[in-house]
Amino acid sequence: MREDVEAENQRISYNIQKHGWHCLHVLPTQEGQDRFTYSIGFAESYAAPEVLIFGLEQQKAHALLNECAVLLKSGRGIQPNVEDPDVLAGGYKVVFRPVRQDCLGQYLGTALRYYQARPFGAVVMFIPDRHHRFSWQSGYDGSLAMANAPV
Description:
alpha+beta, single chain, 151 residues, six-stranded mixed β-sheet, 6 strands
């Protein structure tokens, strides 16, 4: 097991050195769970929180995280709890909401193992439906969620 963690950490470290970040896809292990994707390396490379995206297929989630990395590399930060117009095309905005520190282990176990004792933060990227509404807004239509978001 220790060798597996070391090999995984080496793979993550290589990707961070080469690309500035590593992408991790987590598939559901139980019925009713969402798949999600998250970054590892935003904290190390850009002094920014790691970003989680729930419910999108791997290719689209990876593309969105890559867009975040491009923005971070250009000096743009991630601002929690404000509508951000720079990640999606077509006038769509995303919102980043902070992940509580006590929830990191539930969702970001690999990142915790990689960073070890080094502190890092994380945010969840919320994507609107096709009518530009978020899940906490009245009229949100999850069936029209931006799964086909232009990135």
